Amino acid sequence: MEKSGRQFDVIIVGAGVMGSSTAYQTAQRGLKTLLLEQFDLLHHRGSSHGESRTIRATYTQHYYYPLVMESYDLWLQAEAQIGYKVYFKAPHLDMGREDDDNLLALIHNSRRHSVPHQVLRRHQVAQKFSGLIDIPEDWIGVFNELGGVIKPTKAVAMFQTLAYKNGAVLQDNTEVTNIKKDNVRGGVVVSTANGESFWSKKCVVTVGAWMKKLVKTVTRLELPIQPMETHVCYWRIKEGHEGKYAIGGDFPTFASYGKVYVYGTPSLEYPGLIKVAVHGGNPCDPDKRPWGPGVALDSLKEWVEGRLLGMVDSGEPAMKQCCMYSMTPDEDFVIDFLGEEFQKDVVIGGGFSGHGFKMAPVMGRILADMVVHGEANGVDIKNFSISRFKNNPQATYSYPLC
Ligand SMILES: Cc1cc2nc3c(=O)[nH]c(=O)nc-3n(C[C@H](O)[C@H](O)[C@H](O)COP(=O)(O)OP(=O)(O)OC[C@H]3O[C@@H](n4cnc5c(N)ncnc54)[C@H](O)[C@@H]3O)c2cc1C
User: Fold this and answer.
1) Closest to 367 measured CA to CA, from 78, 33, 8, 4
2) With a 6 A CB cut-off, is 294 part of the ligand 1 pocket?
3) How many whole angstroms separate alpha carbon 100 and alpha carbon 260?
4) What domains sit in the chain, N to C, each tagged with a CATH number?
5) Are 342 and 386 in contact, with CB atoms under 8 Å apart?
6) Residue 368 CB contacts under 8 Å (≥ 6 apart), including other chains
7) Whether residue 147 has its Cβ less than 6 Å from ligand 1
8) Whose CA is nearest to atom 35 of ligand 1?
9) Any residues with CB less than 8 A from the CB of 99 and at least 6 apart, and which?
10) How far apart are CA 368 and CA 345, in angstroms?
C-alpha cells in the first residue's frame, strides 16, 4: 500500500460484531475507515461466531432498554440494506421464583418503560405455551412479544459487507501490537505484528476478550475485563415433538433466573435440536484456550428435564460449541474514551459480558458518534465508564463459574 493508503480518518481494531458494526457506521458517514482483524475474517476464536443469539428487551438494569429498542430498528435497517434476514422474531419468556430479585427488577423495568407484558402463574405458562414449558408452583413467568434470534456469523458478515460497500478497507490476519499518539501531526499511529503501521485521526478498539491485554500494552491501564471460555449446548428434541419447538410458533426465547442463569432459543439453526445453555464459564487466556472441558452439565440437565417436560432428551447435549465471554465485574459494558495522552482520539468498546450481541447495531452507532462528535449522542454512558473501576478498585466478579 502506498503512503496515502496508510492514512485513515478512523482505524477500528477487531472485526467481531462490534468492530464490524462500527466500521459500517463510520464508512456510511463518509469517514475513510480501516478495519483490522488479527485472524481470518469470520473466524471462530472470539465471541461473535455461531448460529444464534437472543435478543430481548427485558433487563434487570433499566439503562439497557433504550439501547435494545434502538437496536431493533437498526437491525431492520441493516437487513434492508443487505437484502437478507439476520433477525428472526419470537416471543420472550423470563422465569424464576416469584421473589427472585432479578425477576422483580425486570418486571419493574417493563412497567417503567411501558413494555407490554404479562406476569403468569404456572398454569398460565402451560396454557400460553401449549404445555411445552412447565415452571414450579412458586415461580412466575414474564411474557412479552419483544424476543427473537439473531444469526451471529451472518450478522457480522452483513456489517463487514456493508462497511466494504461504503468504502471501508478490511484487512485480516493483521494483529495490532500497539497504538501510539502522534505528537507531531496529532492523531494516532497503529502498528501491527506484520511490521506495518497506519496513521489515523481516531481509533476505535473493539478487541473483545483481548481488551485487557491490548489496553495494558497501550496505556499500562489494567481494565478488569476477564476472558472466559463457555459452551453453548444443543439438545435433541424427542421424535414427534420437533415442530413444537420451532421458531415461528408459540415457543419463545427464554431466560431462567435462579442459582444458575439458563437461557435458550427456539429451534432454528439445527432442526430437531434446541439450544439451552448456562450463563457462565471458566476464566482463560484468549491466546491459550483450553477448548473445554466445558460447563457443568448437572444443573442444565435438571433444567431441561424439569422445564421442558421430558419432550427433550436431557441425557447429554447432542452438540456443544465453544465461545468466549469478556466479563466485567458488574457485567456492564465498557464504552469510553481511553483518555490519558489520547484524550478523545481513542475510543474503546468492550466488556460485553455475554449479552452484547443484540446491541451491536447501537454500539456501532454510539462508537461512531464518539469518533465523529466526541459524545455518545442521546445515550448516557456513565454506567459504562472506565472510571467506575478506578472508583471501585475492590470490584469482584459475581458471575457463575462452571
Ligand atoms: C456462548 C455465548 C452466548 C452468547 N449469547 C448472547 C445472546 O444470546 N445475546 C446477546 O446479546 N449476546 C450474547 N453473547 C455475547 C455476544 O456474542 C458478545 O457480546 C459479542 O459477540 C462481543 O463482540 P466483540 O466484537 O466485542 O468481541 P469479538 O467477537 O471477540 O471480536 C473481537 C475481535 O477482535 C480481534 N482482535 C483481538 N485483538 C486484536 C488485535 N490485537 N489486533 C487485531 N484484532 C484483534 C479478535 O480476533 C476478534 O475477532 C454471547 C456470547 C457467547 C460467547
Assistant:
1) 33
2) no
3) 12
4) 3-48+153-224+330-390 (3.50.50.60), 74-150+227-327 (3.30.9.10)
5) no
6) 22, 25, 26, 29, 31
7) no
8) 14
9) none
10) 12
For residue 46, how far is its CA from the centre of ligand 1 (angstroms)? 5
Q: How close is the Cα of 33 to the center of ligand 1, in Å? A: 20
Q: What is the pLDDT along the chain (402 residues), one digit of tens a residue?
A: 444 569 999 999 999 999 999 999 999 999 999 999 999 999 999 999 999 999 999 999 999 999 999 999 999 999 999 999 999 999 999 999 999 999 999 999 999 999 999 999 999 999 999 999 999 999 999 999 999 999 999 999 999 999 999 999 999 999 999 999 999 999 999 999 999 999 999 999 999 999 999 999 999 999 999 999 999 999 999 999 999 999 999 999 999 999 999 999 999 999 999 999 999 999 999 999 999 877 779 999 999 999 999 999 999 999 999 999 999 999 999 999 999 899 999 999 999 999 999 999 999 999 999 999 999 999 999 999 999 998 665 555 555 544
- Report DSSP state, residue 280: -
Nearest CA among 391, 386, 298, 301 for reference residue 350: 386
Residue 54 beta carbon below 6 angstroms from any ligand 1 atom: yes
Among all chains, which residue has been given the C-alpha cell 482483524? 37
